[in-house]
Design goal:
Pfam family, one: Thioredoxin_5
Number of domains: 2
Number of helices: 13
GO molecular function: isomerase activity
Oligomer: single chain
Shape: globular
InterPro entries: Thioredoxin-like_sf
Number of strands: 9
CATH superfamily of the largest domain: Glutaredoxin
Keywords: Isomerase
Structural class: alpha+beta
Distance between the termini: 49 Å
Strand content: 5-15%
Protein name: DsbA family protein
């Protein structure tokens, strides 16, 4: 404040800068304690089908409890290559075994998965898109979740091989980044080191299955949830780790902002985020966009909503 410019008002008894706000002298101050936060570690992989399946629940959880969460996405390293790989629990020993498993996951979760690329153009390694994720995260952490989402859409819904250079460049270009430079950097030893740091974090968290979500408080007490779970399971875990009372769920952001950010949402995601039924989604979206500035596409029996 410049004392040479102070003017004293005889009526209010206030000396201050002319034109300064709050000339009445009354002002509401908020001394409330900041809401307690937990660290959320999400151990995942771009080609993890169950990770795709929990997109509706994960988005709803992180949006509703955003004031209580610091979210960290950790790559888990699902498939380095096919040499000696075997997932005996799901009967997978080669690429061709993945398709029926994926289709079953998609049908159960209502997050559509084609999976026929495993017969024609199989993913050779999940480490490739995982390294791109780490490079994007290095250059702009805010774009890393968007990259992961777009990669999963291309793989699961649109049946494209995200271990291929062209697809990865297209995705990163679409985020406003230099796709060619990002993908080239993802092939360097430095990018592999970034990925291995995530693997060490996953090991420290005890994440042996994907997806794994770990919630930890400031006292280093934590709750670990492995596998796909309903929204209520994540809410209960958050209650367990917070030490200063029950977490307060915020209202979800309006659909215009969510769809503007995400670009595409499946019906199931809108249902879980806003707590509405499948039958209510079409009218809900129409009310949110009275100008009709959205379009839909049927993907394996599920409705995909997109902005025009």
């Amino acid at each position: 404040m410049n004392k040479d410019n102070l003017i004293c008002d005889m009526e209010t008894g206030i000396c201050g800068v002319p034109g300064e706000a709050n000339a009445t002298g009354f002002q509401m101050l908020d001394f409330s304690k900041p809401q307690e936060k937990a660290d959320l570690y999400y151990v995942t992989d771009p080609i993890c089908s169950h990770c795709w399946a929990i997109e509706p629940q994960f988005r709803a959880f992180t949006e509703r409890y955003r004031e209580h969460l610091n979210v960290h996405i950790v790559m888990g390293g699902l498939l380095e290559n096919w040499d000696g790989f075997a997932d005996r629990a799901n009967g997978i020993s080669g690429p061709e075994d993945v398709a029926p498993h994926w289709r079953e996951v998609g049908e159960q979760s209502r997050m559509p998965i084609d999976g026929s690329l495993w017969h024609t153009d199989p993913v050779t390694s999940s480490f490739i898109p995982s390294r791109v994720f780490k490079v994007v995260q290095k250059h702009d952490p805010s774009l890393a979740p968007a990259f992961l989402r777009r990669a999963r859409e291309e793989l699961f819904a649109f049946n494209r091989n995200i271990s291929g250079t062209a697809v990865l460049k297209e995705i990163t270009d679409g985020l406003g980044l230099d796709g060619d430079a990002i993908v080239k950097e993802a092939g360097t030893p430095e990018a592999q080191q970034l990925l291995e740091e995530d693997f060490r974090t996953a090991a420290r968290l005890g994440a042996r299955r994907l997806p794994t979500i770990v919630l930890a408080n400031s006292n280093q007490q934590s709750v670990k949830i492995a596998g796909a779970r309903p929204l209520e399971a994540y809410e209960e875990a958050l209650k367990q780790v917070l030490t200063e009372g029950k977490p307060v769920a915020a209202d979800p952001p309006n659909l215009q902002s969510v769809l503007g950010k995400e670009k595409r949402l499946f019906s199931k995601e809108i249902e879980v985020l806003y707590g509405i039924s499948r039958e209510e989604v079409a009218s809900f979206v129409a009310r949110a966009f009275p100008d009709g500035s959205f379009e839909t596409e049927n993907i394996l029996g599920e409705t995909l909503y997109m902005l025009k």
